[in-house]
Amino acid sequence: MLEEGSNSLEFLLNHPKTGHATSDVNAQTIERRSYSPKKIKIFSSKYTLIEDCPEYTFPVDTEARKLLPDIIDNPVQRLFSSEQIPLQVKTQFKQVRHVGVFFSGGPAPGGHNVIAGLYDELKKYNPESKLFGFLHGSDGLLESRYIEITNSLVDAYRNMGGFSMIKTGRTKIDSTSKMESALKTCKSLELDALVIIGGDDSNTNAAFLAQYFKSSGIKVIGVPKTIDGDIQVKAANKEVLCAISFGFHTAARAFSENISNLTTDSSSDIKYWHVCKVMGRVASHLTLECAFQTHANLCLIGEELADYVDTKRIKKAMETGLADYTAYGMTLRHLSRLICDTIVRRAAAGKNFGVIILPEGILEFINEIQTFIIKLSTIIAEYNKIHDTDFHTSFPLLRDKLEYLRRAARDMGTDGFPIWNLRDDDLFGQLPSFFQEGLLVERDTHGNFQFSQVKTEKIIMDMVKEYLDILKEKGKYKVGIDRSYYESVMKNAGLSPDEFALILFKNPTDQCLIMKESIMSRKTLKQVLVSNEIIGQADDVPEPIVQIYKKADPQFKIQTHFYGYDGRGADPTFFDCNYTYNLGITVFHLIANQATGQMAAIKNLEKKFDKWEPIGIPIAKMMHLEERKGRLELVIEKSLVDLNSNAFKVFKAVREQWLAAESNQDRYRKPGPVMFSDRTEEDRPITLMLNSISVS
Ligand code: FBP
Strands (DSSP E) along 127-226, which ranges? Predict the structure, then answer.
């Protein structure tokens, strides 16, 4: 309220309440910025030492041995504190250091705290040391664009989400000239070490740089970042060394809050199926975590679909003495049938609404689509190799791209084994154009297919809608009617509920009544009443029965949502704040102990904080050959959802309850918002907690 006699805009703008209301900073931001994360115990002692852990071994890829000879024999290393610290180590810790750091790939909550932990530790041992932040990811390193990270900059970003401090980028360092530029920048800044905070591809960059920099003495350390949760490291003895990448917990919590709000909306308005596509380029870890957080009705795990075997088809084929190879793996058609089955079952229980979670990378696990993706990227890579311009510049329009493929199918068909044959062309031609365009989308610089650019949910749900129409026509998709509702409508109209139930419903004595399959339209409804001599040919169907019929007749309405970029930008949970700050400190201690080619990690994340152990994991040993842009490349292996893990087994055992295809209550769970407090029973990912249960 304006004070009496003072209605000028100036007064309003200068009023403290206006200042408070329009401030860029609110109380939560202030609280976040001022929070000092807990430190792992050994970091409270002045120095640490490093020791090799030969008990952790890995199968080594021969290509990795060939390309990364100087770091391939790195062991897992453990940091520890000791009463006796050699003088040389003390000197190493206290020396003036220049360290460079950059973010790489998609943002993940907690990245700023890695920098904060590293910065604090660097300055603690020598205030003269400097931390340089390369701008826009590896581009900053290659083009020598950087800032010096200062106290006030770090303070502004402590415990805050995103990578805004120095931004990020996705450029791959994949040529000798780029390596040389990187080295030149590092030398010009007299760097002692370079730190790459990134996902699987960025840590792949880190390994190649560590190899290239080896003789220069500049150390390279990676940090496991990605909301996708697909950097998980287990040694050959199955011991978990890195249970999860940072950012995963926060993103899953942020998505889950939104999805859970949709479960509330859906069960209030009871008219929509909310279809939520959740990020995670390939692996379905985020979907699985969101499933536990929200208990949504149907959560699809891509990795499970890949393992799908259609036993009915196999049996049928065996009867004819043949093998049906199409019975192995899931097709888009299969998948849409599976979703329809869920929808039909819930509808029969009176619930023509619900929430579905689809992983962003689900298409990676669908046979025919995966084949298209590999074939198309091989053709595009081949084209780019031969021609001076790239495929997408040469054929900017979909029409032209399709024409090129058609020609390829015809021409290649003449010599032996064509990559793109007439059958491919025919099948591809049957896909809707938005989907064709999606599958032809350019791969990212690392050769990953960009699933986030494809309207996966649309293609799947369009097929679902089509099939539901068929099921509706066949009278198989009906909404169950609650018996008490039915009885009250009939009694109010003076009609006998029991007499009509026998005629209308296939389960006349149940609590949730399902109209007979033969009653598919108002016409067939009338015929049933006429043939049962309830009404005459000239009579109208009684209004209450029309009302019941309408209620049983399903309308399939969906709302689609994509959760990805929002959760990537969320402020980190307490878990991610503490995890990342300690990762930053670990990075410094690895550098001070002369490590290179290692990924900083915290072992025992699933245990209580006092059991957390800082380690270095040899990146080169995590690598394998993978198809990228039509050829095999040495990259870090993505970790997919393990169908034998505790988390997946539990999910499989309880998902029928979450589907709730019965007239009982739904089992939705409210995870609440991302919390910045340790007063919570769930202080780390649920999947992580489940996987840590020993069931031996
Ligand atoms: P990173 O692997 O770099 O962490 O990125 C993960 C991710 O967020 C995926 O979940 C998503 O598919 C992709 O990035 C989106 O990429 P872009 O930011 O280029 O749209």
Answer: 130-134, 146-148, 193-198, 219-224
